[in-house]
Amino acid sequence: MPAEAGTTMPTCDHCDAHVSERFARVFADEHGEIHACVSCSANAGIAEAAKERVRGT
Q: How far apart (Å, rounded) are the C-alpha atoms in residues 46 and 50?
């Protein structure tokens, strides 16, 4: 479903790349922040990269 007029697509908080609403629902943390995406992390490591960036390692 396309974004409504006046709304913005979610972006990765690490690299500012646009991500889909579906990606954001799956990988965003409890605050809605997306710490890694397919543009800045390997597909297999997105969840791990997000956890590491939240911990600050």
A: 6
What phi and psi, each to the nearest 5 degrees, are found at residue 18? Answer: -70, 140
pLDDT tens for 9-37 read: 899 999 999 999 999 998 898 899 998 89
CB 11, CB 19: distance < 8 Å? yes
Residue type, 4: E
Read off φ and ψ for residue 28, nearest 5 degrees.
-70, 150
**Which of 5-9, 35-39, 51-55 is predicted with the least confidence, judged by mean pLDDT?**
5-9
The number of C-alpha atoms within 13 Å of 10 and in the hemisphere containing its C-beta is: 20
Instruction: State the pLDDT at residue 5.
Output: 58
